[in-house]
Design a protein that fits this description.
Elements (H helix, E strand, L loop, with lengths): L8 H14 L7 H29 L3 H25 L6 H8 L2 H36 L22 H14 L3 H26 L15 H12 L5 H7 L7 H30 L10 H8 L3 H35 L18 H17 L2 H29 L14 H15 L3 H25 L1 H5 L4
């Protein structure tokens, strides 16, 4: 069937060369990629997600949740690194699936990644708004309640104005091009890491071991659910892969950027989670700004204000990287014809896909302004897990079917590591709440309608092969 038509890796590399000729500039190196990954990986989980996950899913056992998620992600990151060295083309898991499984699977995964990046960016913007308003409050300024949070008439809130404004501002930055954007990102990442270290140094003196009891108030199943939710924190190396066509030496630099991103971040997550849940009883942490809240709880308001400022900078990098990844995904899908071709149009001056950048910004701004934070987190995790499974299985398939392809990085112990990665991601998937699955299946049903009414007919691959 034509819906299973595959795109050859040779065709992908030719399209990449054509895109470079039209303006996609190859400007990024290992440091830029690592800063992209760290910019996304360190921030959301620490400054936003820790509170929600501890209060609602895992309690102090969130320490184990992040450890479990980090181990699983390490296996997945190895698979991403091999794919990135073999197929250095924009689109990340969507592009890899097009070569491995065929068009319908690539579309489903691409639609899934749109959910992942779009809702993650919206969720991060919501968290950014919480910290920004906390900073304003410390200065004696408060926004009108109606525009302070997402739509919830019962609470008197209708629109999250700060979240919308930061999304639109960063959309403008992303539209300026990869090198200019990543330079600003690197500066903010350094500030963010300094703030996290300050929190750990101050907070460790206020840890009460009694706050770690009970360690797993929701049982081990709560720890697993927390790990599934925590996957949102680790999508940074997926975003690194979306930048493939703007990397100077992708076969070498992409794998290093992906693996360094994960290595730099894992220890910070575990340390911050341990200190946070030791400072504050877990059931009090269901807030938008848990790290600053913890410092206010121990009456270290001066540090809390500084942390809020640093968190704002840190979360800004996460939001920036997610918007960057989403625009490159739209670019790749638009170039294949499965979404309007205009999404793949590159501004020759900036080298950025300008139209897809602004489409992303407007959609994310609307979601951030209207949808509550707790509704966003689980939807992001389910999208991430599906992407990781497809990449892990894809490595096994391409080792059999395309053993001839050059790989500057190879996953060790194939097929065992990819199988472990896929199975553990599957286990985390079934641990997500039922409502998340319902929302995900509705999203996928909408996606299939878009494919059969638009993508199937406009697919560039279908036109090249005469709809065969």
């Amino acid at each position: 069937m034509s819906i299973f038509r595959k795109k050859s890796i040779t065709e992908m590399l030719q399209e990449k060369a054509a895109s470079s000729a039209k303006g996609m500039k190859k400007e990024l190196g290992v440091f830029d990629l690592t800063m992209l990954g760290v910019g996304c990986v360190v921030g959301t989980g620490i400054f936003v997600l820790t509170g929600v996950a501890a209060a609602n899913h895992a309690g102090p056992g969130l320490i184990l949740s992040f450890l479990l998620a980090g181990i699983v992600c390490a296996f997945c990151a190895l698979c991403y690194a091999e794919f990135a060295s073999m197929v250095p083309v924009s689109g990340s898991a969507y592009t890899y699936s097009y070569a491995t499984f065929g068009e319908i699977f690539a579309w489903v995964l691409g639609w899934d990644l749109i959910l992942e990046y779009g809702f993650a960016a919206s969720m991060v913007a919501s968290g950014w708004s919480g910290y920004f308003q906390g900073l304003l409050s410390g200065l004696g300024l408060d926004l009108p309640k109606a525009i302070s949070s997402a739509f919830n008439p019962a609470a008197g809130t209708y629109f999250d104005l700060p979240a919308v404004l930061i999304v639109l501002l960063l959309t403008f930055v992303v539209s300026r091009g990869a090198k200019e954007s990543t330079r600003l990102n690197a500066i903010m990442v350094v500030v963010k890491i300094a703030v996290i270290i300050l929190f750990i140094i101050v907070g460790v003196f206020y840890v009460k071991p009694s706050n770690w009891t009970p360690f797993m108030p929701f049982g081990f199943s709560g720890v697993v659910t927390g790990a599934a939710t925590a996957f949102l924190s680790y999508i940074g190396f997926d975003v690194v892969a979306t930048a493939a066509e703007e990397v100077r030496n992708p076969q070498k630099d992409l794998p290093q950027g992906i693996l360094w991103s994960l290595a730099v971040c894992s220890l910070l997550y575990i340390l911050v989670t341990a200190v946070l849940t030791g400072m504050v009883p877990y059931h009090l942490l269901d807030v938008k700004n848990p790290v600053a809240f913890a410092l206010q709880y121990i009456h270290q308001d001066w540090v809390a204000g500084f942390i809020s400022l640093g968190a704002i900078v840190g979360i800004t990098t996460v939001l920036f990287v997610l918007l960057f990844g989403q625009t490159r995904l739209f670019f790749a899908i638009g170039r294949d014809g499965l979404l309007p071709k205009k999404l793949s149009k590159v501004n020759p001056k900036s080298g950025a896909p300008e139209f897809s950048t602004w489409v992303t910004g407007v959609i994310v701004a609307l979601f951030a302004g209207l949808i509550p934070l707790n509704r966003l987190a689980d939807l992001v995790s389910i999208g991430t897990l599906f992407a990781f499974i497809s990449v892990s299985v894809g490595i096994i398939i391409l080792r059999k079917t395309r053993a001839d392809l050059e790989r500057s990085f190879r996953v060790p112990l194939v097929p065992f590591i990819p199988i472990i990665a896929a199975l553990t991601c599957g286990y985390l998937l079934i641990s997500l709440p039922r409502i998340t699955w319902i929302a995900f299946l509705i999203w996928m049903a909408i996606g299939l309608c878009v494919y059969f009414f638009y993508g199937y007919k406009h697919s560039l691959l279908a036109k090249d092969k005469g709809n065969s």
